[in-house]
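Example record for the data management plan.
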Amino acid sequence: MSTYLIGADVPAVPAGERFAALVRRGPILRIPGAYNGLAALQARRAGFEALYLSGAAMSASMGLPDLGILTVEDVCVFIRQVSRAAGLPVLVDGDTGYGEALNVMHMVRAFEDAGAAAVHIEDQVLPKKCGHLNDKKLIPVQDMAAKIAAAVRARRHLYVIARTDAAASEGLDGAVERAQRYLDAGADAIFPEALTSAEMFREFARRIEAPLLANMTEFGRTPYFTAEQFQALGFRMVIWPVSALRIAAKAHERLYATIAREGGPKALIGEMQTRQELYETIAYADYEALDASIVKSVVP
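Corresponding structural encoding:
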């Protein structure tokens, strides 16, 4: 039985330590976004070893904009289902830490208890914005350093990544200066958001001696690079934060439009995951086998 929830392969090593080991091991750690338990299982079946929970994806799946509206407990609901479903280390978008130092410490403990392996915290003020939008406002560097120090103090195993959005307003020099201050405060890695060219990525990596995370979001300010290209630029991790949600949302639009137009979804049957495929993904038979009182299902 391979499903994590069943318990046959529950990892003995804490999630944060497993995540750190993947970063150290190399090659570049590929971390796709998975915004629910089913997506997490599908990503694991595709061979990925870590997953990402995007604030934008979580917010959008709740019908909300990514403006710092989610609470710590909202996010913990997502962490629990994704980490429990797949058993993989999960990197979580911690936005601005939900407040100041004490709030950040609460977030760290709550995320760890929910099953998170890693978190990134950003240096924007609230209400925060997507890192690829305009006119982001930043908190003073010393305030962000205090948040990072608080996160490191509160953690048991969580891998702490400091995200800086400074490149857009303070230039590469400002982003590098902030990154170094965050490393001095105890961050394990740095996430420079919304860099706009290969040269910027390469120069940032040359000047910062720490594991670096790249964000390959669609429709943003960063050109499209592959994981291998990011690795060649000096980065150790890459996320595709909202790709799965975008694909699913477009499919939803087509489905609902088809039902509204044709009175049913028959025209799209060929594009649907079959019942058998779904049951294989969620290990339906394995769950049935755990309880002899459940009669084995036969897929029609």
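Summary line stored alongside the record: The CA atoms of residues 16 and 117 lie 4 Å apart.
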